[in-house]
Amino acid sequence: MKSLKLLSIFVCLYLSVFAQNDWENEQFISKQKMPGRATSYSFATENDARDGKRELARMMSLNGRWKFNFVAQVEERPLNFFEIDFDASSWNDMEVPSCWEMKGYGTPIYTNITYPFPANPPFIERENPVGSYIREFELPEEWNDQNVILHFGGVSSAFYLWVNGVEVGYSQGSRLPAEFDITSLLTKGMNKIAVQVLRWCDGSYLEDQDHWRMSGIHREVLLLAQPKVALNDFFVRTKFDKNLSDALLQIRPEIKVQDNQNIDGWKLEAKLFDEENESVLSAPLELSLKTIVDEAYPQRDNVPFALLEQNISHPKKWSAETPYLYRLVLSITDNNGEMVEARSCKLGFRDVAVKNGALLVNGKKIKLYGVNRHDHNEREGKTVSREDIRRDLELIKQFNFNAIRTSHYPNDPYFYDLCDEYGVYVMDEANVETHGVNGLISNIPTWNYAILDRVIRMVERDKNHPSVISWSLGNESGCGPNHAAAAMWVKDFDPTRFLHYEGAQGDPNHPQYLPVNSAEWSNSNYHDLSNPTDPSYVDVISRMYPTLEQLENMANSPYIKRPIMPCEYAHAMGNSLGNMKEYWDLIHQYDNLIGGFIWDWIDQGILQKDDTGKEYYAYGGDFGDTPNDGNFCLNGIVTPDRKPKPALQECKYIYQPVIFEAVDLTKGKVRISNRFHFKHTGEYLFQWELMEDGKLLESGVLDDVIISPQSFGEFQVPLPSFKVGAGCEYWLRLSVHTTLDEVWAKKGFEIAKEKFLLPFYKDPEHEKAEGEVHVQDGKQLVISGKHFSVTLDKQTGNIVSYLLNEAEVLIEPIVPNFWRPQTDNDERGWKSHEVSGFWKSASDKLKVKEFQVTKEDGKPVVTVLSTIDNQVSLTRAYSFEADGTVELNYQLEADERLPMLLRVGTQFAISNEFKNMAFYGKGPWENYCDRNQAAEVDVYSGSVEDFLFEYIQPQECSNRTDVRWLKLTNSKERGIRIEGGQPLSVSVWPWSSEMLETATHTNQLTKQAYYTVNIDLLQSGVGGCNSWSDDAMPIEKYRAKSGYYEYQFRLVPVN
């Protein structure tokens, strides 16, 4: 009986395995799919290959309208739609490429870690929508004797393919090409392609990235023709001598021969051209095809890499600063010397090495000013256009970035072409993330092939791009034998780039190793995030979101001998990215801190309209998607429509390649440092401007600023003599500009700047306002003059009315304010409601203890003392002048044991007729005390709306620091001017604080009949280490700690 039971169990298991769906079998990942290969196109002539334009190649785009059918369940999918005579006329049209959720089919899902289905790999235990596509095409006549390959740039997440009613194959892996040779199935005339795409498959367990989960044929579809004898693939390396002077050009071609073609006398020829299209080689490199095809592999040692090789004397080197590209043209000729095909690629001579804990490119220690980039379009989701990619690269270069991590999957090939051309270092990351099950899959042998396939295909496709300086094995997938196997393959196949994988942490063979789940590790080693080092197969020590202390501890660790790099840091969620200066001050101190990658590039908001037609950006949960992670997809430094956010301006300044420091400003002496790694400064224009407050007095060019890379020099600006005006500030502005058009910017583009306050100042002369000021004391205190009246509430000590020429200025009283609408870092991160909630209602809790009216210098002075128990004491002294000027002196004493404040200031509301805004302070963009290095003190003017920056999830916004004065006026130029006795922090909103705090989307913010005005001494910084823990709090120097504060400002009538 026992034997019978065991037999029954075995039979059930056997049947379940062999009845397993293809898309729920981790060992079945493709069928009839061609191996990965470098991106290239077959050309009929060498000249066309030299030109390199795709439209000249043997290529046909199948982008455009396809017939489309959608079902919500895999069981409902059409089963015979691929047949030749199937009538699809009733089906809808679908644009390819696209994500079907963006076209009204199914639901987009945003989730960070949690899988969109129950985690039970490899099974999909939820509804699995299916999209079926049909497209017909005719082949060009000139392709009749060619092999035809059907190329899908990217399909999420798995698909079956039929051509002319015959099954071709199957593929999964959403972010890399799937190519199928369909030659034998094609006919003259019309041909039919049928594709059936499943939203989820076992491969979805390897695609648990923090982004929108969308489906469909989301990258381009191409038909590629090539001859029966073709250069199917090739790998190019540049190997420098020890002096990094001369280099070997090494080429390893792969020839595909079909139909037993006789290739006697056939040869491969290589030519190299520079950017002027001049030949570099004295004669082409040649090799017979038979030598390539019949290559012998030795029993011992490795097969030599190069089949074609040539020494190149003093080639121009490629780097992110000097992206010089050659063009390599490879041609096949037959035994009659006739051209069979030609292919080409752009080629950069560059060397990457890790040495003595530093990262070297072309022998120079470099820093990676990097950002993580997801594919995203506000209307199309995961489908991005070439224009999107180009705009991203333009902005990345314009804002002084030099590196991108392709988080967390390979990008479209066009992206790498632009990185080669524009000059951007790329960390190319495999489409492997298993965050929802952590490291489980890396430790299951049956998943090895799936992981290795994704890594290999990425490397094979992108191996010839000089911009790719690093391979990354994926993201947040734990560590185990499967990643180790992938690492070993990569390092053996391509030792010319450094290998990265943040999940590879802790080397069990090290004597100080502690298991990550041990109490000793948690208590002892977390302070420096090292354990104490990582597996030998990674070339850099990579971490996520280290604090400044942790990063410095790692830099000084005696155990870490490799470069250290935060692959993610500076979490830019909402109003964030504080303390970038402090991170980069630290990074510049240590050679082994090689830079890092901000999280991340673009807010992944999806443009929607509400019932009234008002546009807003949607995020997780807005589509009824479950599970979801809300607005955690909004971490970008550009908006979903690719406009710079204020934080991006800070990056540009922090990353700028030229630094200015004051030496002796009385004489105009400055030190200029060149942080370029490869370029001297002689090719740039240095300009200077002398300014009085916001007015330009004189400007000029600083000549002969020629500084070698990583060097500095002292220079004297030829400041003219000028008369110092009473109460005026004088500024020296220095800037650096391009002198030629760049592919990413026009001539004259500013790449660096600095502004110095000159030590010339003359105290202003204050004229006493003439006239009488009257005091009327009753239930309320009224202070009045000829053209003004101010009313104070004796119960609160607040100014509740401010009349100028009998017109009310105030809509809401002038009240103390210690709180701000919560930023994402405040709310999600350090939980300010819990930590500092005392201060949210502190203004309402203040009780007036003293209310005194006195006179000083003939002016009424009202002194109000308010307290909260014995914890907080606030003294406000108001003084009044005959012209209606009100001066407020503000002294706060708070028990130091109380939590930090979010702001120390004052708030009121005025009529929205005062819509014109001008200020003299740091701008023009929004800035905060820990994110204001890029902002410049100047005079700025516009409407209140011009100075707003609205975050997709409303929160504290639109602040300006170091403000000397703020003016708000109406169309008749009447209003008020706020003058600080010291620099102020100010903002003006067309909403209340409560509206900003409670709204979840911008369409919920309705502009009011008033403006909220915040006049602060200071505000706590926005923070920016992360957005989910206490580390989200601003660093200590930027916290408004409970204690003593004093400040003063004046309300001055305008006209």
Distance between termini?
A: 104 Å
CATH third-level topology of the largest domain: TIM Barrel
**Protein structure class:** mainly beta
Query: Spans with pLDDT under 50 lasting ≥5 residues?
Result: 1-18
Number of strands: 59
Shape category? globular
CATH superfamily of the largest domain: Glycosidases
The CATH first-level class of the largest domain comes to: Alpha Beta
State the helicity in percent bands.
10-25%
Total DSSP helices: 15
CATH architecture call of the largest domain: Alpha-Beta Barrel
Largest sheet: 12 strands, antiparallel
Number of spatially distinct domains: 5
Strand content: 35-45%
Taking all Cα atoms into account, the compactness measure Rg is 33 Å
Calculate the mean pLDDT score and round it: 96
Organism: Sunxiuqinia elliptica
GO molecular function, one term: beta-galactosidase activity
Signal peptide: 1-19
Catalytic activity: Hydrolysis of terminal non-reducing beta-D-galactose residues in beta-D-galactosides
Short précis:
Its EC number is 3.2.1.23. By secondary structure, this protein is mainly beta.
Write up what this structure looks like.
- This protein has 1055 residues and is mainly beta.
- The longest helix is centred in the first third of the chain and has 17 residues, at 2-18.
- The strands form 14 sheets. Strands 48, 49, 50, 51, 52, 53, 54, 55, 56, 57, 58 and 59 form a twelve-stranded antiparallel sheet that branches. Strands 1-10-9-12-6-3-4 form a seven-stranded antiparallel sheet, with no helix packed on it. Strands 30-29-28-27-26-33 form a six-stranded parallel sheet.
- It contains 15 helices and 59 strands.
- A hairpin with a 6-residue loop joins strand 16 (229-240) and strand 17.
- Helices cover 12% and strands 36% of the residues.
